[in-house]
Amino acid sequence: MKNLIKLTDKQSKVVIENGELLSYSMNEKEFIHQKGSPGWRNSDTEMFPVIGPTAQNNFVVPSPKGESLQDQHGLLREFPYTLISFDETSAVFEKIYKANTPVTNSKFPKKSKLEMVSWPYDFRFQKSFTLYENRLIVEFYIASEIDMPFMLGYHPAFLLSGNGKEYIQVKDKKITLSEIIAGGAKAFPVFDCEDLFLVKTEGYNLHIKTTGFGHFMLWTEVNNMLCIEPITQYPYLEKMNFEENMFKKSKGMNSFSVCILPVKKS
């Protein structure tokens, strides 16, 4: 497997490493937070099959098939993608999980007391990238047993100027970077929303359009990056007790998409 996959379509370029979106640029303007820069150690990841912290629940997540042990944001990120296919403008990655297989928790022991995590269902999780001249589409396909409970969140980080003046526009509502930072670790929720704009001070604004998720949460601690996260469930409304209504139920095959559409400033 090639570690770095490069997609190009005229003036647009994408770089992916082991399923992680490292770069998306148009006309040499970079949109993705660069690993190693202040703010976050990654550039994108997924949250599945749970979103949010689990420590206050003793890391226990209930399900119809019994309890499982999960750390924050779920176990999907704890094992690697396999490259399925790629060409000049697209790439498909996959993770396959066998029910109750123990997976090493990367947070242990420095950030967690939980050494191994697991989930009582089989699933196949695909992540695909399709680059067009004027947009990038990221799609997720989850195959599992019908009625498997799950939450899904996509967690990309976008590059900002560092001047603190960028903001999020949702219909007629403006959400400033300072408001998002003040939200702290719980992130800033945007409910019942399928698209929003990241309004920047120069270059391109970004129109983020989604299907299947239903909500967003916004997180950063710095002025140079912003995580704009489509989510199926905002996990911080009350004590995290993982009630049944917090989860989607699998249809057997479930699909979700995120479109990142650069819009040149006038």
From TrEMBL:
<dbReference type="Pfam" id="PF01263">
    <property type="entry name" value="Aldose_epim"/>
</dbReference>
<dbReference type="InterPro" id="IPR011013">
    <property type="entry name" value="Gal_mutarotase_sf_dom"/>
</dbReference>
<protein>
    <submittedName>
        <fullName>Aldose 1-epimerase</fullName>
    </submittedName>
</protein>
<comment type="subunit">
    <text>Monomer.</text>
</comment>
<dbReference type="InterPro" id="IPR014718">
    <property type="entry name" value="GH-type_carb-bd"/>
</dbReference>
<keyword id="KW-0106">Calcium</keyword>
<dbReference type="InterPro" id="IPR008183">
    <property type="entry name" value="Aldose_1/G6P_1-epimerase"/>
</dbReference>
